[in-house]
Amino acid sequence: MHKINIEDKVINITHANKILFPKINLTKMDLINYYIKVADYLLPYVKNRPITIQCFPEGVDQKGFYRQHAFNSLPSWFETVSLKNKYGVYIEHLLCQDKASLIYLANYNMISMLRCLSKIEDSKAPDLFTIGIIPPENTSFNLVCKAAKLLRTQLEIKSYKPHVMTTGGNGLIVISKVKQGDNYITIKDMLFKLVAIIMNEYPTEFSINVRKNKRIQLVYIDIMHNSHAQSVITPFSIIVGKCASIATPLSWEELDHPESILNKCNIKDIFIRLNHLVKDPWIGIEL
Fold this sequence. Notes:
Blueprint: E1 2-6, E2 9-13, E3 19-21, E4 26-27, H1 28-42, E5 51-55, E6 65-67, E7 80-84, E8 90-94, H2 99-107, E9 110-116, E10 128-134, H3 141-157, E11 163-166, E12 172-177, H4 184-201, E13 206-207, E14 219-222, E15 231-233, E16 249-250, H5 270-276
Parallel strand pairs: 13-14
Antiparallel strand pairs: 1-2, 3-4, 5-6, 5-9, 7-8, 9-15, 10-12, 10-14, 11-12, 11-16
Helix pairs in contact: 1-2
């Protein structure tokens, strides 16, 4: 068993040499070291937000599970928050407020971390909304970038300030702060009308239909995560998949050169990007 000292807390690392990503021979200790190094980038995006973790105790090739409720065995220093669910029952939810909490969760075989679109101060009121761009297999990433740019244009017409990040594979997420008075209902209604404008102009390229058999070979524009208690991938989280891609914030200018994006957004190359290229283009933006 390995012991790691973080912020005056001792975390026991179990099964450090277990292979979690067989295709790239990535161990649990590699995973933990990644989250140690990326913590200062990731933590501001989850501060005071309920989280959901996706865990794979036997590696990503085996069955995993999601968890948002606090464990019974959490150490006393690990912060949680009690929130009422839709049935009026209070549930203790996980938070990730500091580096020690992040590494504790990584030791729990957490591969991915998802965050709520609202903060604990008002868990029913979103301060963010997201739009997923999900292509079918063998779709050019250029078309995904085109969808993101079209969404940006429509959102800016409505005075939002959208940003964009990778989601692993060939997908992207567009994300924005809400405006005063927005709630989940008004946001989803606004986004449905906005996406309808794009679909009407490009009916052979994009779809909002949730049924895969109704959008074969069309890029899916997903607005359905904008609901109470839903969660989305956290910037700089590892994404479940064969090659440990990273949910990477991008600048809009990078979409003009799509061929240069995807191969640099993985656990092997992310720090080359952060240390020598564009760092985090979202720094200073409260997302």
